[in-house]
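#onboarding

Welcome to the new folks! Below is a worked example of what a typical request in this channel looks like: someone posts a single protein sequence, and someone else replies with the predicted structure as tokens. Don't worry about understanding the tokens yet, we'll cover that in week two.

Example request:
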Amino acid sequence: MTEQQTLRSLDRTVDADEVAKFAAMAEEWWDPNGKFRPLHKFNPVRLTYLRDCIADHYQRDPQADAPFTDLTIADIGCGGGLLTEPMARLGATVTGIDATERNVEIARSHAQHMQLPINYRFTTAADLAETGARFDVVLTMEVIEHVTDPAVFIADCARLVRPGGLMFLATLNRTAKAYLFAIAGAEYVLGWLPKGTHDWRRFVKPSEMAAALRDAGMRLDELSGVVYDPLKDSWRLKQRDLGVNYIALAHKADAA
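Example response:
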């Protein structure tokens, strides 16, 4: 039995070809100069954004040693743990899940080496939600463009959010600019990513994101663009520039 066949939710949103693609690259998750170099470069800006938004929502001091103590966070599509580990260092109780079994193995091994108590699981958002698990914060960063049905995937992730909780979703906009920069530029000209990493047809427009969140019972709070600065070789937030990369922040209303 293959690792894909062990997932009950395979026919819902998991794409076997995408699973195989990331399994083939899994050994390079923690190499800052390897195939995941763009994510290593991307991490500082998204970590700062996540930290500040979560701290503001839960009235925590973002500069404290462990501001997320007593908060639970799920990292959906955690990969090798590039975001999962920093969330744990901020004091949260973290669960990281991925539909690629080798990713989970790599993430678990690295966390053990770093002595971080992270609960890594080879499963899907739908299956995790079926267990009754609920979290204060759910992250699904750079995952939606790799699933077969973004709306169903968003609904599955939303089920994991506790009333009053937050969900963050990062993806790419389906624009000509995104094709130029994220595929033609990043994959074919600059070689930042392996060719075929992304399929432009799977990019998600902000209007589609908003509709899926609304249908899933979430309230969209803001959309923030993330742009690359070639002079500084770094990324930064640019609120109104949603042409390529963007992050959506949504919350679930408190229970009545």
